[in-house]
Amino acid sequence: MAFGKYVAVVLGIAVYFLGTKLERDANKLMVKFEDLPSDIRRWRDLGKTVTINGHEMFFIYKKCRDKTVKKPATFALVHGFPSSSYDYHKVIDELAMYGNVFVNDHLGFGLSDFPVDNYTYSLGEAAENLLSVWRHAGLKKAHVIAHDMGDSVITEILARRHRKMLPSYFDRFFQSVTFTNGGMRFDLINFRITQSICMYPMIAKPLVKFGNMMGATEYTFKKQLLSVWSPFVEDVEDRDREIHNLYILNAYKNKILHNYKLCYYLWDRSNFEFRWFGALRELDIPSRFIWSDSDAVSPVTIPQSFETMVPDFKMVIVKRNGHFWMLENPKRWIEEAVRVLN
């Protein structure tokens, strides 16, 4: 660790003296709205933004497409790190045949604002914002499906529910909760090297800027994401396109240069597991763990560890799929998502 701090200091000094070049390179890296791929621009056109706690948050609320469904259920989908609601672009239309679908971008992600100063990106803040945007959209009850960091945002909300700290508006909100691949057990996460670095801003900040100066930002980001895709993917072209779009959404408005700030949630996972596990032990709403088995970062040992903790434990293992299996295998994802309606 001492060596890491030394390296950070040296790089910090180098970055300071090369500030002009870094700013010039940062402007080259930045993706503006007009530079976004057409499919992401179409995704934006499906939604709108709302001011939540002083910042603009993007969301889509797609109503049920099947008019024969008299009282459609609502699915609230919660994305993770380092992605956005766009993770669900392959499933939203088909899922809307079964009910209403709500998705949003957390602050700092996707098409939502990315406040750089005076904001910690804690899971507590993410939970507050999510509750606020749900309420703004008028969601009264929902089947919640979370992924990655989204799992921890939801467990924070469930902990508040368990302690009777939620507003009365949410007394009957949760019809069910589904957890999909995420680091719900800190000690079982297989951290990517970039996650480990970004947990220490003093090291991450100069390294990110130095990597950008050397032209390595895009390569490193895509390489890390490639490592969590399943090795069994057949459509490599589609995989590479999805990874590229994930990168583009992170480079949008230069967010990628400050992405290390978003990793604060990892410290929250470490510090507040005891609080979340207490709520899960006494969970009184239907819950499921649906996990793909070829995830290099969130292995199946994570959901298995909850078997003796969560009441009426239910787990489904999806074979030969990676971390972002809603993108790898959208048909299977939908099949599992709608089972809660039965």
What features would you describe in this structure?
By secondary structure, the protein is α/β, with parallel strands linked by helices. The protein has a domain at about 35-190 and about 270-340: 3-Layer(aba) Sandwich (Rossmann fold). The chain is built from 14 helices and eight strands. An eight-stranded mixed sheet has the order 1-2-4-3-5-6-7-8, sandwiched between helices. Strand 3, helix 4 and strand 4 (about 100-105) form a beta-alpha-beta unit. The termini are far apart.
| Overall pLDDT level | 90
- The N- to C-terminal Cα distance equals 52 Å
Could you spell the SSE succession in H and E letters? HHHEEEHEHEHEHHHHHEHEHH
User: CATH superfamily of the domain at 36-190 and 272-341, called what?
Assistant: Alpha/Beta hydrolase fold, catalytic domain
Helical proportion? 40-55%
> Which ranges are low-confidence, i.e. pLDDT below 50, for 5 or more consecutive residues?
15-24
Derived from helix and strand composition plus strand pairing, the structural class reads: alpha/beta
| Beta-strand segment tally | 8
Summed up, the helix count is 14
The largest sheet is: 8 strands, mixed
What does the overall shape look like?
Answer: globular
CATH class of the domain at 36-190 and 272-341: Alpha Beta
Q: Numbering strands along the chain, what is their spatial order in the largest sheet? A: 1-2-4-3-5-6-7-8
Rg on CA atoms, Å: 20 Å
Per CATH, which architecture of the domain at 36-190 and 272-341? 3-Layer(aba) Sandwich
- Kindly estimate the percentage of residues that lie in beta strands according to DSSP: 5-15%
CATH topology of the domain at 36-190 and 272-341: Rossmann fold
